[in-house]
Amino acid sequence: NAGVTQTPKFQVLKTGQSMTLQCAQDMNHEYMSWYRQDPGMGLRLIHYSVGAGITDQGEVPNGYNVSRSTTEDFPLRLLSAAPSQTSVYFCASSVQGYEQYFGPGTRLTVT
Amino acid sequence: QQQVKQSPQSLIVQKGGISIINCAYENTAFDYFPWYQQFPGKGPALLIAIRPDVSEKKEGRFTISFNKSAKQFSLHIMDSQPGDSATYFCAAIINTNAGKSTFGDGTTLTVKP
Questions:
Q1: Chain B residue with minimum CA distance to A9
Q2: Nearest-CA distance from B46 to chain A in Å?
Q3: What is the pLDDT of residues A15-53, one digit of tens each?
Q4: Do B46 and A58 touch (CB under 8 A)?
């Protein structure tokens, strides 16, 4: 099992550009989540999904979109990148939301 | 409103010592409390977890102590080793909304040889 994979590992965007962060898992987990990690602020939940076709907002959803068309994939879309979105992004999956398995992260810089 | 408060922000311990990290929560609906360990450049990894019907859980050198009345829980690392140097996060989850985890801000642990 590859577990949770994320691409790309690093990305630099200019303000106003859009992009999609990819996340995939091969553990057949129903629950998937996106977090951002900023220094001294821990992990903050952006969006999460409890199954294909079902998504909901987390603590900091503004500026991000998600969709879940398959169990395996949960992409995160930045619609118009802003410097405030410079962060490390982690995707996680779990069986029922409890024990989460995290991906290796995507480090995003917006200039 | 921060629902899970973690302390200290950083901790330095000598090799062989005991590392203690504390978390306090406000929402009594939380019913699952995991701890995650994160090394630089890596994603967090589940270390140990507890439910509020248990006061203590031990796995190897790692122990969670849980005080339901005080709404506090803590991670104890016995015989701390340099390899334990990492950032530790506590978290809390409500079973009726298990997709939503609330994390503490993290504690950076340094174990000196």
A1: B41
A2: 7
A3: 999 999 999 999 999 999 999 999 877 899 999 999 999
A4: no
